[in-house]
Amino acid sequence: MKTNIFAVILGVVALVVSGVAYTKEPSVVTQVEKQVYGGVNPDIPSPYISFGNLPFYAAHPAMVTATTSLCSMQSPSSTSTLESVSWQVTVGTGTAATIDIGTSTNAFSTTTNLVAATSLGANATGNAIWSSGGATAQDAIMAPSTWVNVKTAGAGLGGYTYGGTCTAVFKVL
To answer: Which residues of 14-30 are buried (b: 16+ CB within 10 A; e: fewer)?
Structure first.
């Protein structure tokens, strides 16, 4: 008889537990997805960007070593204005030099100087910038495919071995 009572009690407990489990709302597991806003990568691989139907071109090459032509940047294939041009030496060389910024019809000379003879001491770092804000109007106008060059004066046979970059920004007319 004790066995029957124990079996009945066990059955009642099982019935109560299953009834509670049946009426309890199931727990819902939700996974929150990371939301990404916007669709524009801030790094644009194109050499130009256009907004308001006005294209801007930019160049930012590393300096070339063992030459007097440190950087050569070509304007767009249409008439443009040179907004700014600059150079920055981050690794000096053992020889002092002067550095020019100028324009030319080729990538190896400075026919028209924009910034002439900026001195840079041996093993020194430095920079120079030219901006159209203080220029005469004719200095800022670039014929199609004109070169803007950053050059050193009078290096030895191996040229200079500066480390750094140059930058030029053009606005198409």
So the answer is: eeeeeeeeeeeeeeeee
**148 occurs within a structural domain:** yes
Name the residue range of residue 132's domain. 54-172
Q: Confirm whether 38 is domain-assigned.
A: no
In the numeric block, the tokens 């053009």 are attached to 170
pTM more than 0.85: no
Domain-located, residue 134? yes
Residue scoring higher pLDDT (37 or 115): 115
Summarize the confidence of residues 126-137 as an average pLDDT: 80
Distance CA(159)–CA(132), nearest Å, equals 30
Residue-wise pLDDT tens digits, 49-89: 988 999 999 999 999 987 889 999 999 999 999 999 999 99
- pLDDT for 11: 58
- The domain tally of the chain equals 1
- CATH code at 126? 2.60.120
For the residues of 65-118, what is the DSSP string, one character each? SSBSEEEEEEPPSS-EEEEEEEEEEEE--SS-EEEEEEEESSTT--SEEEEEEE
Residue 15, in any domain of the structure: no
